[in-house]
Amino acid sequence: MVFLNGKFIEKNQAHISVMDRGFLFGDGVYEVIPVYNNKIFRLNAHLLRLQTGLDSVKIKNPYNLKEWGDILSKLLGFYNNQEQSIYLQISRGVSNKRKHSFSNLTPTVYIESNPLLTKTKQAFKAGFSAITQPDIRWHRCDIKSISLLANVMYSQQAKEKNVEEVILYRDNQVTEGATSNVFIIKDGTLFTHPTGVHILSGITRDLVLESARACHIPIKKVSFSMDELNAADELWISSSTREIMPITQVDGKLINRGNIGNAWSCVYSYYQSLKNA
Ligand code: PLP
């Protein structure tokens, strides 16, 4: 079952107009929200980011917090899996003429949920690989926009190179991953790009910072260079579906001689306790 514009229906019955601005322009925003033990994880933080994104692109939020909560709970009721990944998309809606500018439309709301396939700690312990690429995206990466062409191309590259992620840099400073936030540990301190227009303020990023504080790891929200990335003691990526992943190889070079680090182990364990709280 999926949710489309107020109705719970079978996915193969869910259709939208070709005049939907999401289809024609990629004009909309989205959220991906994990569910653990049947509980939506950090729902308010996701709904707050959704609201910020909608405000940025002048789409009216069709539901209030309680209504969103009720819709998502009802949708999850159709699934048996306790671990889910909710995909929620709002586009500006359907207009009768294809025109870049817009008038007031009724937003199209689509939600689906799929089993969340989290990797085990054992799998994480092997570490993952990444490659780097210049960040060619626009200067509003803080908006979780459904226009994802650059990210799509990066992710395809990652697939073709058989690596987990593409790590992006702008003016030689690491921004984030194509679908994740990026962190390094250097001499015991955690570094991550500050929030602003060049990264998405990840909900998991906040959880990584919360976990790092619990592990008494000093945090610097400042950007770091490509050289600093290559010389890092540890390198991680984070996202709602991947949690916190240790990257032990970048562009074919080993990080921490190919081993995951102690800081990651502590932060990952604390994150697990947050999930199960
Ligand atoms: N940055 C980008 C570009 C992303 O696409 C994502 C997630 O999809 C993230 C960061 C991580 O965000 P979150 O932790 O909220 O999933």
UniProtKB/TrEMBL annotation:
Task: Tell whether Transferase is among the UniProt keywords.
Answer: yes
Q: Which cofactor does it need?
A: pyridoxal 5'-phosphate
Q: Does the keyword Transferase apply?
A: yes
Instruction: Name any one GO molecular function.
Output: 4-amino-4-deoxychorismate lyase activity
Please list the GO biological process terms of this entry. Answer: amino acid biosynthetic process; folic acid biosynthetic process
Q: Which GO terms describe its cellular component?
A: cytosol
Q: Keyword set for this entry?
A: Aminotransferase, Folate biosynthesis, Pyridoxal phosphate, Transferase
Protein task: Involved in the biosynthesis of p-aminobenzoate (PABA), a precursor of tetrahydrofolate. Converts 4-amino-4-deoxychorismate into 4-aminobenzoate (PABA) and pyruvate.
By sequence similarity, the record places it as follows: Belongs to the class-IV pyridoxal-phosphate-dependent aminotransferase family.
Name this polypeptide is given: Aminodeoxychorismate lyase
- To which species is this protein native? Candidatus Ruthia endofausta
